[in-house]
Amino acid sequence: MRMILLNPGPVTLSPRVRESMLGPDLCHREPEFAVLQGKIRRQLLEIHALDAAQWAAILLTGSGTAAVEAMVSSLVPSDGRLLVIENGVYGERISNIARRHGIATERVEHPWLTGLDLPRIEAALRASGPFTHVAVVHHETTSGRLNDLQQLATLCAAHGAELLLDAVSSFGAEEIDFTGWPLAAIAATANKCLHGVPGTAFVIARRSALASAGETCRTIYLDLQAYLKNQDQQGTPFTQSVQTFYALSAALDELAQEGGWKTRRESYRNRMAKVRRHLLNLGISPLLAEGESSCVLNAFHLPAGLGYTALHDELKARGFIIYAGQSSLAQQIFRISTMGDLSEGDIQRLCSAFDEILEGGRSRP
Predict the structure, then answer these.
(1) CATH at 314
(2) 184: helix, coil or strand?
(3) What is the pLDDT of residues 156-180, one digit of tens each?
(4) CA distances to 56, 207, 243, 261, 334 from 176, in Å
(5) How do residues 342-365 score in pLDDT, each as one tens digit?
(6) d(CA 85, CA 110)
(7) Domain count across the chain
(8) Which residues contact 24 (CB under 8 A, 6 or more apart)?
(9) Are 252 and 84 in contact (CB under 8 A)?
(10) Span 9-35, pLDDT tens digits
């Protein structure tokens, strides 16, 4: 039975991506690796038609959190100040990262189920500024919310703060305005909307923003300045995960051939609309309104009388892996993502699986 991953990464792989990892053994100091690395860096910039003279894709071996930590620790200068916007687990994680590195940080905390409170954010920028940077999560998978960044970007520009964007769960499927928003950098990963495998993450940074951070070297392994210098010279400061690079390159080829991020966004939207509509018809309500959720992931209230573990296990027995809520939401919701190599038949089978599970529950005495 083919297992379909509906969690927010890793994803169900296409045969092409899976088979790409059987490429030849390759030393990361050989010219063939430099060619592979350079191709991936170009492909990442091409997703949003970014000029390599102004922007750099910097590759790391690690998870999405490694990219976020590299971005925060490398882009905020030693005398910089960071304002972190939190409305979920991953915004809170950014604050924890900043504190661990001794970065002067303030937070604007939100309840997990709310969008950005722009008046409070503006008040913080006015009262506690100046801030050199503002950090925010684009798609907060805690709730499935896609944070509306346009007005936040306007506030940042007005207050002279550059934006550090956690795009781990949005890059490759949701819109990121690299020209209109005051972005210093975004952090993302291979194994979500790009449909690669875990092990490769990356930061896309504005070269001038990284240069203006000066000699900010808070870590050895996550120092973006060192990675950029080496990768611009066709090298790498540390051993990279070669097989996951193969997979990312193949996944990026697939993304381009499908039509790019806009086509992928439309595919996710269509899949999620079918799932969401079917669950609503079964009496399973979404956590957020449709316009507030990302196309990548939606959260749903657990059906009455059915706990998460039972629902997870019933679906797993039918070939589907869903995801639990986090912390206080663990006993209230489940989450479904539509990333990866999914077919229309897979979505239909998922809907049928929910029919079977809920009908079985209703028929029990």
Answers:
(1) 3.90.1150.10
(2) strand
(3) 999 999 999 999 999 999 999 999 9
(4) 16, 18, 28, 10, 27
(5) 999 999 999 999 999 998 755 443
(6) 8
(7) 2
(8) none
(9) no
(10) 999 999 999 999 999 999 999 999 999
